[in-house]
Specification:
heterodimer, A: mainly alpha, 73% helix, B: 72 residues, 434 Repressor (Amino-terminal Domain), two-stranded antiparallel ribbon, 2 strands
Chain lengths: 193, 72
Amino acid sequence: MSSSGVSRPPSEDMTNPGDRRRLRFITHTAEWLAVAGVAMGLGYIAYLALAPDALAIALRREVPGVVVDPGGPALTAAGLVSLIPALIFIAAMWSARTLFRLLGRAATVFDPAAPSLLRRIGLLAVAAAVAGVVVRMTVGLLMTSANPPGQQQLVLSVSSGDVTALLVGLLMLAFALVMREGIRLDEDNRSIL
Amino acid sequence: MAIVVTLDVMLARRKMRSKELAERIGLTEQNVSLLKSGKVRGIRFETLSKICSVLSCQPGDILEFVPDAGPP
């Protein structure tokens, strides 16, 4: 039942049953991959929380210019900051899981909730791209904070992953707008009997 | 609205209930009710053709043009 009041059986949504089957397969597979992504992200955070030495080693490896171990609060702060991309990743995976579940199980592919989920994933991807640059810079500053004067580092790097995340995010934001227009057209079509 | 749906009049003439028409043309009873009340944006030729076939009438028997009251 659409907001226009005109009802239509769900089977009319995708005229090709093969496409519907393919969509169900893709969304079902992607839903489980997203759940696995969430589990991996949580596992990574739990591992670093339970093994602080591993976190310190990982941070030292990430910033090669560490001469004097910052130790204590600086190391803890760097560890916490370095978890931000993982948290964004978990949030994005959870939103992706919700979206795939919706597309696979909803009666209509033009569900009104889909554009807002796409938009959320897009914003998270853009945030991940920005966070990638900012976190590397902040971790670099914190990890070299105990270095002698003149040997502290301000790392400013943009990786191919950051650019990819940014493009994927912008693509998602564009798709969200296209999806919103698709829903409007679908509503219009439903009100013609 | 300039186009008025007079399907209810034709149904009364043919002594047919909305439910029967809905079943015979493949629409839900709710959609036929919306069509009767004119609360739809349009009607497909396919649907119009089915209605005319079932009610043995012409499109003009179920659709009427009423000019707007305001200035042209």
